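Hey team,

Filing this mostly as a record. A colleague (T.K.) asked me to run one chain through the structure pipeline before their review meeting, and I want the input and output archived in the tracker in case anyone asks later how it was produced. No errors, nothing strange. Just documentation.

Input sequence:
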Amino acid sequence: MSRVWVGLDEALRHLGSGERLVLVDGAHEGTAGHLVVAAELASAEALGFVIRHSFGIVTAPAPAVWLARLDLHPMTLGSRDRPLYTPSVDAAEGTTTGISGADRAMTLRVLASRESAPADLNRPGHVFPLIVEERSRLRDPAVASLDLMRWAGLSPVVGMAQVMNDDSSLPNVSQLAAFAQTHELGLLRLDEVSARRQNLAHRRRHQIAQCWPHMGICEWDPDPAPSLETRRSA
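Output structure:
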């Protein structure tokens, strides 16, 4: 892959094919890169890669209503500026210790399945669900990653972890680009996702519900995929 930076259309194709993507927040100082995978398509290979090249904490951003039906609620009622984590979870079946790439991939798939029930998850575990609220910040990797799932026609659950250098430091933009080049990953700027979401909000002020109509989930702004035909066929 000679060109590591990708646009929205290409990013959605990557995610819809079960591939990993690096979501980049920041231009120079304070840069953060997050490995993103579609939870419903999570594989042992993908999660093994994510764990090896991150700080090892795999979060699962999802809408509050989606997690509530799994009886997953905030551990604390903190500030809106702080992440709202639920108790950590493991899949109740099909896993061993819960910590391996295969086990965490299974847990993500259970979280992403509409057929899952609270009893399908053990608590505590090794995947950390993160509640993304309606009024979450536009410039936030969790919010942006959920937008990507919605635009790709995928379940509204993400597998996400922050990229780490070999020396345990945070990579800058050039290091993220080199990382993506080495591993043939696409890099997507968070600003592109936020800008599209903001533009849609301006155009649809009268519509405040975001929908996954094929899953019976509605929150935020109903938004078609960005002028592409990459939605996964049922």
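Quick notes for T.K.: Helices lie at 8-16, 44-52, 64-68, 101-112, 141-151, 173-183, 190-203. The first strand starts at residue 21 and ends at 25.
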